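User: quick one, sequence for these tokens?
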């Protein structure tokens, strides 16, 4: 873990991997560290608006980071129609039938590791490493809002129409990003998620 000072009151922590970044984000929340903004990434965690930056910079490298039991909160359920254009390709890669892909996906409890790419786009983890799939060789010019896809070890749902290279297995009508809500993103880091067949 490496800690970098940014601006006057921010820290950027470089982590060894996604698991360490997720554990660090959870530990910051568990300890109720006073920060203006906490922004996790795949291998980084940004702490912006840190009251006592030097003390926190010295302390956090000594924190024992472990995967803590997530609070027992109900997952956000995303009703999903599994009719994506890449469903059969994913089935071949997983050596399963399309129905088995759907059963595997709906039977997995996901967690939002971090958000990015577009407002409200949650990178969800939970599938076994051996089920990782590559992005498309040529991204699509336009992916419809609500499309549910796979890329690498992640599952995600597009909050708005945009270009994208994820392998699309389905679609949801859930409103993933709404600036008029108190919490605009339906899927914030740490949120448990279940995809439910619609």
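Assistant:
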């Amino acid at each position: 873990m490496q800690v970098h000072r940014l601006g006057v009151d921010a820290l950027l922590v470089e982590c060894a991997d996604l698991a360490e970044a997720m554990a660090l984000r959870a530990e910051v929340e568990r300890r109720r560290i006073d920060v203006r903004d906490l922004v996790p990434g795949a291998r980084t965690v940004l702490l912006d608006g840190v009251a006592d930056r030097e003390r926190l910079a010295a302390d956090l490298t000594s924190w024992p980071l472990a995967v803590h039991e997530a609070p027992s909160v109900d997952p956000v359920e995303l009703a999903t129609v599994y009719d994506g254009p890449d469903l059969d390709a994913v089935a071949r890669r997983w050596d399963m039938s399309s129905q088995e892909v759907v059963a595997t996906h709906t039977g997995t409890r996901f967690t939002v590791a971090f958000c990015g790419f577009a407002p409200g786009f949650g990178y969800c983890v939970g599938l076994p490493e051996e089920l990782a799939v590559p992005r498309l060789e040529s991204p699509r010019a336009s992916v419809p809002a609500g499309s549910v896809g796979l890329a690498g070890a992640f599952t995600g749902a597009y909050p708005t129409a945009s270009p994208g290279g994820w392998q699309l297995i389905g679609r949801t009508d859930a409103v993933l990003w709404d600036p008029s809500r108190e919490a605009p993103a339906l899927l914030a880091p740490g949120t448990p998620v279940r995809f439910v067949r619609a």
